[in-house]
Amino acid sequence: MVDVSVPGWRWEVEFMADGSLAIERYRRVTGVESDPGLLDQHVGEFGPENPVL
Fold first, then answer.
1. If you write DSSP's letter for every residue of 16-52 in order, what string do you get?
2. Radius of gyration (C-alpha) of the chain in whole angstroms
3. d(CA 53, CA 19)
């Protein structure tokens, strides 16, 4: 696994034996957010219809 850190982001990139990648991305936010609409927003932005890679 490779950890990538840039201002405001942290990524964990895992290289699989079959050559595929698994990427987890974390964005810094100020404090705790409790808006349930954030999950819908995240899925809409990065869900299956809009893959990251």
1. -TTS-EEEEEEE--SS----THHHHHHHHHHSTTS--
2. 13
3. 14
pTM as predicted: 0.48
List all residues 6 or more positions away from 13 whose beta carbon is below 8 Å from its beta carbon: 1, 2, 3, 4, 21, 22, 23
Q: Identify the CA nearest to 24 among candidates 1, 48, 49.
A: 1
- Mean pLDDT of successive 10-residue segments in the chain (53 residues)? 82 90 82 71 65 57
CA 8/CA 16 separation, integer angstroms: 26
Are 27 and 8 in contact by the 8 Å Cβ rule? The answer is: yes
Strand partners, 16: none
